[in-house]
Amino acid sequence: MIRAIVTALALLVGTPAVAQPLIIAHRGASGERPEHTRAAYQLAIEQGADVIEPDLVMSRDGVFIDRHENEIGGTTDVADRSEFADRKTTKTIDGAAITGWFTEDFTLAELKTLRARERLPEFRPGNVAYDGQEPILTFDEVVAIAREASARTGRTIAVAPELKHPTYFAAIGLPMEDAFMGELERLGLTGADAPVIVQCFEVGPLERLSQRIDVPLAQLVSAAGAPEDRPSQTYAQMITPEGLKAMAAYADWIAPEMTLVLPRDAEGSTTAPSALVTDAHAAGLKVVIWTLRAENAFLPAERRRGEGFADHGDMAGYAAAFAEAGVDAVFSDFPALARSR
């Protein structure tokens, strides 16, 4: 049964065919500041974002850390820290061998000594100027940023945490779900009026959370593959009308990769919208696409401008195309552009 959407978000989202989708700042205004930093979140709020997104992984002592992945060699200065040189290792995460430094091998106190860096310097060289300025945030610190901004601006700033790799973390003795429930309860974020949307690529955690909390849940869906905890249940099967009906039994939102809504042809140009938005709405699901970025490398051919992959194209026009396709929300690294029409 679909639970009530958070009151504040429902006011912003409106009916399915909204003129202006909800703007979710993907890791903050990460196109203009290093992702998951206080500066990125604060800039996103200044630019009018309705929601800020933290990706959540865990420290060795069970604290939720705001990082894109549990491997932090590319987003912090850990590789330059000689005292942590012996922590470099290779692990298998969701079937892929990854070499680097991992949050679960550090205590919160150790992680707090690190400083954030730009994850995509080849595309965002301007962000490199902010490297080394900010510490890693915890989930409760991101919630505090949203609450302070809500009080200051008079508008509701929600938070959309994504649980990263819960199957992996459970296998190493750091089960996420109970710990996350404890965090939400401590922060008073379990009720139907809590300004939260919880996301995950895996299915089981969302199914179980749907029995324990009333906040909206979003099933993330890639253009290929399957959830780590349900390898026989492909994402392609999940976006059929039957799959969407099953999804609606535990989730309020589907969060598909953007090309599942506006596909691209062999030349990389946008084609006609798929049936996904219509089918999702028919199943009672809201739709939020990921991820709008301004750089040519991430845009369809007709939206690119200039010669370089890092040059900015017509992201605002692309955002408008998704609004016309009927999506209810968009994730974007550039909240101000996502709101442009």
SSE topology:
Elements: H1 7-13, E1 22-25, H2 38-46, E2 51-52, E3 55-58, E4 64-66, E5 89-93, E6 96-100, H3 108-111, H4 139-153, E7 158-159, E8 162-163, H5 166-171, H6 176-187, E9 198-200, H7 204-210, E10 217-221, H8 235-238, H9 241-247, E11 253-256, H10 276-283, E12 286-292, H11 315-324, E13 329-332, H12 335-338
Parallel strand pairs: 1-2, 1-13, 2-7, 3-8, 9-10, 10-11, 11-12, 12-13
Antiparallel strand pairs: 3-4, 5-6
Helix pairs in contact: 2-4
Which key terms come to mind for this protein?
341 residues, alpha/beta, 3-stranded mixed β-sheet, 12 helices, 13 strands, 27% helix, 15% strand
What does this structure look like?
The chain is an alpha/beta fold and 341 residues long. Helices cover 27% and strands 15% of the residues. It has 12 helices and 13 strands. Strands 7-2-1-13-12-11-10-9 form an 8-stranded parallel beta sheet. It has a 3-stranded mixed beta sheet with strand order 4-3-8, covered by helices on one side. Strand 5 and strand 6 (96-100) form a beta hairpin. Helix 2 (38-46) packs parallel to helix 4. The longest helix is centred in the middle third of the chain and has 15 residues, at 139-153. The chain is globular.
